[in-house]
Design brief:
By secondary structure, the chain is mainly α. The chain contains 23 helices and no strands.
Length: 462
């Protein structure tokens, strides 16, 4: 497989400008990432409860929407974008607040359609014009680091908050799963054991899967996790495609009114501001990949990521309205793929693209099989919590490594704190003044006040 590419070059592709890469032709399926994805299949199903409550969608339709959304993630890695994509997660409380201002039923669905299509339009315009690429190219290191720190702190605060279920409801199972996963993924001893033992290297290749399984078993033994039920109620999930199209899409209920389009504009802008941080995190992780594995050049192009994200939002907005919207990256999944690729040899994992694609093949296919989902569903909090921990760890160490001066570190720290402390808070009765907006403003003011020197060209990440 590694013969397909020269040392340090981009993996070959078909399709010209589209950079189409096909499984078993351009890369192999990495069964370790496939299994990690299958285990995490229960995590995206967690949004179905909110979809049922807020949108009035039957649970079978909500599950079908999640499955369709998951398969569309494959558009990124199939067409040359290294993103392990996901939702625009940070804005979910804002979307729910916005939607509850409309009458339940078709009007509320139309409000979501307007919001999601407008978000897609913003991604499309900024991607095609290259505006975002220019902004990122000139984005100060201190502010990049601040966004990474904020993302890391936000993840870890959720895990260690006693009000959250991770430590509150299953402390023994979650702590054991976390310690096992962190040892395998990040320990210096584990890296040495990988080189000394082929068996340990094989087990470590599964990433969080060993820790998840051990934590699951401990949870069953301690009673912190309930045994799975309804495993064999059916084999394949229900697929009420006709009901979904006729009752919950623009194809069945029509397009939003003019007033609904106007009402969604400000929140659509907020959603893009939230997603902008994910783009910076993605770029930092891919850069980390290229430094750790110089045998392959993984290319991240902001316009490509934007255009694919735009297509997902516009298509889903019309045909599969999706409450969390479609974002450019899922940081937790990205961290798992990046970490395994970094610590694998070219023989163990020949190409980044095999792992980045396999995690979603595993997740998407597993969600179709009802028995498998019912087996892993009781431990979904362990899987979700592990991704948050790993996301927080990687974001924080990348943020620290990025800064070169104490001024940059100070700006990054203030910006990260602003992002976390103001998150989900609407100041001046406006959703725009949420945590990410305040963090960007605070970071920009401090950069120009403390760091910027107009007499010389500022250092930026190219």
């Amino acid at each position: 497989m590694s013969a397909l590419q020269e040392n340090g070059q981009e993996l070959p592709y078909a399709g010209g400008i589209l950079k189409l890469r096909i499984p078993f032709v351009h890369y192999r399926i990495e069964y370790q990432d496939f299994i990690q994805g299958a285990i995490l299949s229960c995590v995206p199903l967690g949004i179905t409860a909110a979809m049922v409550k807020v949108l009035g969608i039957p649970i079978e339709v909500a599950v079908l929407m999640v499955v369709i959304n998951n398969f569309l993630y494959l558009l990124h890695t199939s067409f040359g974008d290294p993103s392990v994509s996901g939702w625009i997660t940070a804005g979910i409380p804002l979307y729910i607040s916005y939607l509850t201002g409309f009458a339940p039923g078709p009007e509320r669905i139309k409000a979501l359609i307007a919001l999601q299509v407008l978000v897609g339009g913003i991604f499309l315009v900024l991607g095609v014009t290259g505006i975002t690429r220019w902004v990122i190219r000139h984005f100060p290191i201190s502010m990049r680091s601040g966004i990474l720190l904020g993302a890391g702190f936000a993840s870890l605060m959720r895990v260690f908050n006693p009000a959250q279920p991770f430590m509150g409801k299953m402390p023994i199972a979650f702590i054991i799963a976390s310690l096992g996963s962190f040892f395998i993924l990040f320990s210096a001893k584990a890296l040495r054991f990988r080189a000394q033992s082929s068996l340990f290297a094989w087990v470590a290749g599964f990433g969080i899967a060993p820790g998840f399984v051990i934590g699951y078993i401990c949870g069953l033994l301690t009673g912190e996790i309930a045994p799975p039920t309804g495993v064999f109620d059916r084999f394949i999930i229900a697929t009420p495609l006709g009901d979904m199209v006729s009752s919950f899409t623009a194809l069945g209920i029509g397009m939003p009114s003019a007033s609904q389009w106007v009402a969604a504009i400000s929140l659509a802008i907020v959603a893009y501001v939230l997603a902008f941080g994910d783009i910076l995190v993605l770029e930092a992780m891919i850069d980390d990949c290229n430094k750790s594995r110089p045998d392959e050049n993984v290319v991240f192009e902001v316009p490509r990521n934007h255009v694919i994200t735009a297509f997902r939002n516009i298509f889903q907005g019309i045909c599969v309205p999706f409450l969390p919207l479609c974002g450019p990256q899922w940081t937790g999944g990205q961290a798992l793929v990046v970490n395994r690729f970094k610590h694998s040899t070219p023989e163990q994992e020949p190409s980044y693209w095999g792992g980045a694609t396999s995690i979603f093949w595993g997740m998407s296919l597993a969600m179709i099989f009802h028995p498998f989902v019912q087996i892993v569903l009781p431990a979904k909090l362990i899987g979700f919590g592990l991704t948050l921990l790993i996301q927080g760890y990687l974001c924080i160490y990348l943020a620290f490594a990025m800064c070169k001066t104490n001024v940059q570190r100070g700006i990054a720290g203030v910006m990260g704190a602003a992002l976390v402390s103001a998150n989900y808070v609407k100041l001046w009765d406006s959703a725009f003044w949420s945590g990410p907006t305040m963090a960007l403003i605070a970071g920009a003011v401090l950069f120009f006040l403390l760091e910027y020197d107009g007499s010389k060209e500022e250092e930026t990440v190219q």
